[in-house]
Amino acid sequence: MKKICVIGLGYIGLPTASVFAKAGYDVLGVDVNKRVVDLLNKGEIHIEEIGLPEMVREVVAAGNLKASVTPEKADVFIIAVPTPIHEDYTANVDYVKDATKAIVPFIEKGNVVIVESTIPPRTMDDVVAPILAEAGIDPYNDVYLAHCPERVLPGRILIELIENTRIVGGITPEAATKAGDVYRAVVTGDVIETEAVTAEMSKLMENTFRDVNIALANELAKISARLGVNAHHVIELANKHPRVNIHLPGPGVGGHCLAVDPYFIIEKAQAESPLIAESRRINNSMPDFVVEQIGRLTAELKNPVLAVCGLTYKGNIDDVRESPAIEIAEKLLADSRYDVRIHDPHVRDEQVPFKLTTLEEAAKDAHLLVILVDHTEFKLMDEGKLTENMKTPVIFDTRNCLKVADDTKLTVHRIGDLTKLSAIQEASLL
Ligand SMILES: NC(=O)c1ccc[n+]([C@@H]2O[C@H](COP(=O)([O-])OP(=O)(O)OC[C@H]3O[C@@H](n4cnc5c(N)ncnc54)[C@H](O)[C@@H]3O)[C@@H](O)[C@H]2O)c1
């Protein structure tokens, strides 16, 4: 039976390790965080992902998945450690370097070494391969070294790990084939082989495509606020064109992928990437735009009570990394004019630097309820209860996710449709 060593047991590494363990491989999960390792050895997990608690319990009980703080010899090494950005927006590949150095003493001739972490173009050739070479391992001949980026959607990770098409970029054609075979054993989607740098770049461009298109939708939301147009209606009509697909505006772009990956390209080709850089700036400006609109919506009140709903960077997950909702909550909390209550059913107190309340507590006597994340719980909110409990039944839906009855007593403002603002507020805008 093949042994696989997965380095980094987060949102990507832990499901990956579990899927290989479930397929019958002998898997060792390695993490520098001892709490993660101890939990996993008890069959428990530290993250939220649909189906993962059950799968981990099963594969740990079966003895197929174990965890440790140090690697061991294996046939295949898969690195899935974080690749955040530095304060200056350059890529921090230190975790990838550390993880590579950690496995070097255990690598043997013929092993497959895969980096799944998202990395700047040329990192496999210019950073990872030289670390092996310095340790006396020829990266082009002794091992099969490849980059296989991950493109799963949180909330559907266990399904997409199996069904998605995988791009496998080898630093040699043989490495691509050998690494591809690792995935072919468990993946039902296509496994496409290419060079490492093409795989690095294709992953980055997937997320950059989405970031740039969201920036266009966000720019439309701002234009619409200025001109008194309903952007959601505009998008609906424009998208009737067979070759147009305008994305949805929102409160900003978060997460460790869309909000980070475009910078990896900008860093390597700054002069050639002004569109990508401007899109990042537009998306980064959205929290301020939301705060500004909250100011307009509550301008006539002395001490508005705000119920802020949602902190994660997208719906139905517990991940708050780079979340624009956190930035918005912090900005509102810093403004003494507001009494701010914050609620997110997926977030635990220890994840955020402020106190959380229940939805009922947040909405009680609130003048404005602000939806920052499209969690199902918010989409299914009981309108009757809300209107009863709120001082003024007004909602600012920054995700355009709320479905309200035609005869609703709620007033709903949407990020792309602020046309219902009062005349005084309209006047202050123009
Ligand atoms: N989460 C996603 O949806 C997603 C999707 C596509 C790509 N990615 C990419 O996958 C990579 C991993 O992301 P993630 O979301 O799983 O990160 P994560 O932060 O959830 O998990 C990373 C884990 O690696 C551990 N770690 C850090 N340095 C280590 C080391 N030297 N040795 C062993 N363990 C170490 C951390 O303790 C942590 O538990 C990133 O490059 C990310 O951009 C993530």
TrEMBL record:
GO biological process annotation, one example? polysaccharide biosynthetic process
**Pfam families given in the database record:** UDPG_MGDP_dh, UDPG_MGDP_dh_C, UDPG_MGDP_dh_N
Q: Which UniProt keywords apply?
A: NAD, Oxidoreductase
All residue ranges annotated as the UDP-glucose/GDP-mannose dehydrogenase C-terminal domain in the record? 307-404
The source's superkingdom equals Bacteria
Signal peptide: which range, if any?
none
SMART domains this protein is in? UDPG_MGDP_dh_C (SM00984)
Q: Which InterPro entries match?
A: 6-PGluconate_DH-like_C_sf, NAD(P)-bd_dom_sf, UDP-Glc/GDP-Man, UDP-Glc/GDP-Man_DH_C, UDP-Glc/GDP-Man_DH_C_sf, UDP-Glc/GDP-Man_DH_dimer, UDP-Glc/GDP-Man_DH_N, UDP_ManNAc/GlcNAc_DH
Molecular function terms, GO-annotated: NAD binding; oxidoreductase activity, acting on the CH-CH group of donors, NAD or NADP as acceptor; oxidoreductase activity, acting on the CH-OH group of donors, NAD or NADP as acceptor
NCBIfam families with a match to the protein in the record: NDP-sugDHase
**What's this protein's family per the entry?**
Belongs to the UDP-glucose/GDP-mannose dehydrogenase family.
For this entry, the protein name equals: Nucleotide sugar dehydrogenase
The source organism is Peribacillus saganii
